[in-house]
Amino acid sequence: MVTWRSPSHRNKRRHHQRGRWWLLGLIASLMAGCGEGAGEALLGDYQQRLAAALDLAPPAKARPTNIGDFPEPDARLFAIPETREALLDVFALRGCHIANLVAGRNNQLGKVAPPSQRWLYELTLWRRLSGCWNTEVPATLSDNDRARLARLTRLKTDQLPRASWNALFASSEWVGSFSRASSPLPPDALPEVDVQLPALAYLREATLHQFDRRWEADSATLEGYLKTLQERPLTAELLRALMLAERRLAEASRLLETAQQSNACPTTPAGLPPFSGDTRLVAWLDHLELASKRWLSAIHRLLDAQLISPRPAIVIYRHRWLSLEDPRAPWPALVAARQQHREWRASLIRHCR
């Protein structure tokens, strides 16, 4: 059982200060509940109660920094040169059933097709070209046309992973998930992770099976999952929620550090306001930590499934913002901040025995 130190000879002045800080804390808490997000309100309320218990000024809330810019197109996409073949040369390969595909790709609608549809075109073209070798068609071709078929097949085999990568990293749905024009994900929106996770799973499946002829690519399914990602910038919102929680817990830890350095101990019989026992706050932090880990892990699985080495800018962004290990990244930073806060509480309790 912890026995708290009695107040010093400056009790009257400290109790006056305590009443003033309590009033300011109440006002700030009410304002947070009305004008700020629910996560900010929970963290702010805890900060205010902690400051009141220690007779210290509430911490000045620093505005959490935003996430970094997602790499620009020229830094994240692969250049895929246009494949140009004469009309007669394409017609000579008509037995491979690619003429209509090429015509559709070259018309006006094909040129403005979204990245996902361009990938489906490349996938279909590769399957028709490579599948053509297992038919009687090559035997009917001239030497030049057979060589052309072999060259085009090799070329499209090499380009398909790049087209798959670009289909993801050029899509507005995927890029939008990392939008800096976002806010921290509210606590009651954490179930959105379960809504969007199947989209990442499908994109990973499509990436892994693009060279598997037994797997059927479905345009409607692909577009449906991309539309799911478009509903909200979930990656950015999760990262910003992690950064908000880390910043506020770090501020609360500095209160505990200041109290210990100045020999300030709680002046109320109840001592420090509960942290682990603060059901709403801890439940949110636990859920945020778990849901973010599930989401970031799914992103890593999707990126690891790519059949081509990523662009350097994506490697850097992934390591800095999406990592589950780099201490600078939002998720490990929150995990560390929670642990450090628990340690500062325990240290102050021991100091005030």
Can you describe what's shown?
With 353 residues, the chain is mostly helical. It has helices at residues 11-35, 38-54, 73-76, 87-92, 99-106, 108-111, 115-132, 137-140, 143-169, 172-176, 192-208, 219-230, 234-261, 279-304, 312-322, 330-351. The chain has 16 helices and no strands.
Summarize the structure.
By secondary structure, this protein is an all-alpha fold. The chain has helices at 11-35, 38-54, 73-76, 87-92, 99-106, 108-111, 115-132, 137-140, 143-169, 172-176, 192-208, 219-230, 234-261, 279-304, 312-322, 330-351. 66% of the residues lie in helices and 0% in strands.
What features would you highlight for this structure?
single chain; 353 residues; mainly alpha; 16 helices; 66% helix; rod-shaped; disordered N terminus
Helical percentage: 55-70%
Given the helix and strand composition, which structural class is it? mainly alpha
Distance between the termini: 9 Å
Task: Please state roughly what percent of the residues sit in beta strands, choosing from under 5%, 5-15%, 15-25%, 25-35%, 35-45% or over 45%.
Answer: under 5%
3D shape: rod-shaped
Structure summary, number of beta strands: 0
Rg calc: 29 Å
The DSSP helix count reads 16
The description of the largest β-sheet is:
none
Low-pLDDT ranges:
1-35
Rounded average pLDDT? 85
Order of helices and strands: HHHHHHHHHHHHHHHH
What order do the helices and strands come in, and which of them pair?
Elements: H1 11-35, H2 38-54, H3 73-76, H4 87-92, H5 99-106, H6 108-111, H7 115-132, H8 137-140, H9 143-169, H10 172-176, H11 192-208, H12 219-230, H13 234-261, H14 279-304, H15 312-322, H16 330-351
